[in-house]
Amino acid sequence: MCGILTALTNTAVLAQEKADTVVTNGKILTVDSDFRVVQALAINGGRIVARGASTEMTRYSGPNTKIIDVKGATVIPGLIDNHFHFTRAVERWHQQARFEGVDTRREALRILAAKAASLKPGDWIMVQGGWTPRQFADAPGSFTLAELDGVAPKNPLFVQEGYSLVYANSLALKAVGLNPADGARRNATGLVSFQPPYALYDAMPPASPAQLDQNLTDFMHELNATGLTGVYSLGQSKFLADRAAKGPLPLRLWETLPVFANDPASATKAAALIERSHPNQFDGQYGIYGLAEVLYGPFFDLAPRKDPWPPEIMNEYGKLATAAARAGFHVHEHVINNSAVTDLLDTLEKVNRVQPIGKLRWTLGHVYDISPSNIARAKAMGMTLGVHGAAMQAGAHMPLRKIADSGIVFGLGTDATIVSHYSPFVTLGWVVSGLDVGGSRVLDETLTREEALIAHTRSNAYLFFQENALGSLEVGKQADLVVLDRDYMTVPAADIKHIRPTLTMVGGRVVFTSLAQYNLARASELR
Ligand SMILES: [Zn+2]
Prior knowledge:
The protein is α/β, with parallel strands linked by helices and 527 residues long. The protein is 32% helix and 19% strand. The protein has 18 helices and 22 strands. The chain has an 8-stranded parallel β-sheet. Strands 3-2-7-20-21-22 form a 6-stranded mixed β-sheet, covered by helices on one side. A 4-stranded mixed β-sheet has the order 5-4-1-6. It is globular. It starts with a helix and ends in a 14-residue tail after the last strand. 50% of the residues are buried. Mean pLDDT is 94; it is low at 1-9 and 521-527. Bound molecules: zinc ion. Zinc ion binds at residues 293, 334, 366, 415.
């Protein structure tokens, strides 16, 4: 009843407005607070001006209105990823092959061979992580030298498995002085890690500025094709700022303030920088948002520890957190193990007594085994959680039911591209089915489809203080939406990972479409 009244009011108020675009005949999951389903949306100037039955929207159509008849397809709000290492993917995108959602070895090898066929002999090919040997359900396991030489006989090729392992073919091994007779599989230390000496990365020629520009275009298009309309890009890069200055991006991008704090002296300087910087410069398309993902370098939680984090480290963390709170910055902190969550919350509760953080929505990202008591402590300080596809790759048993039932706001993301895939549908499939890409059960606790979709849309909008503009399909909000090739709500849970967008719209602009029937994406809209 309440919903009907709201719809009538919206219709009455905006009845004079004509739409430049109408999306019609859909099963549109609005992901509003009632999770309402409507047939049609009227859009004008990038915003939704009305929603309801398809017949109701005709009053908004004029001679110049673009009609997108989705013929019964499911439509969802644009998907937002709250944790993404974006720029390093862009830097090498022209050389990359990817295994997002690929569940057979045969298909993975076909993808590598196709990439080799698309390049000149001698050009490097890489897979910048985002997969595990478990995901090939037909033949799990690592790649052999014969396989990699077979798919790329004329191109140096390496396939990263996270940060720790790499598989390289004979040409790539020889390029860095290694003997192919010792096999494809190598410990990645010093070969592909982001610590020196980066041997395999260094062996590749750097991308030219023109190539980098093309890579940025192509990678944003790729993410649009996976259903993403917004990404928190951890880091800060001039080429993104330059591109954003030229006009609207096809992907909303938040970046982080570049701060370096690795010891008490640099922490003091970093705190001063934070305090004189402006938080949340996001202008609707792009901008520096917050601090992430390691506020103080020495507090970098990887393996579980026996002892608590030392007070001298947590004290420095507390000083930086106090500066961030005073300046009004959002913090998204990398913290994997519950013991580290405990130590961090101890510190933040002290900070909160001096400089309240309750309105800043700080996010604990990763939290593989967070306890109910720590969820409650974080919630009490107005904090939020980031749940990431990297946990699927790690095989973590995330307490998703406890998180969802606690009422804390949590958003989905990936941590792409090295320790995770970047496909939101792979992530949604994982949290709903409990299965990884290869079909192995990795979660004991799962989410409903509604909870998962909310976490990948509306909740992420909340993490970025954009809940009035993004994250659901409601009158007054931005028209960021994705048309799907099958119904997210009814497809078997194990098939959610295979859902493909057929159209992606950002701010009313079609930024991706795979179907001729939508043939609406003008070239000028796709830059
Ligand atoms: Zn992290």
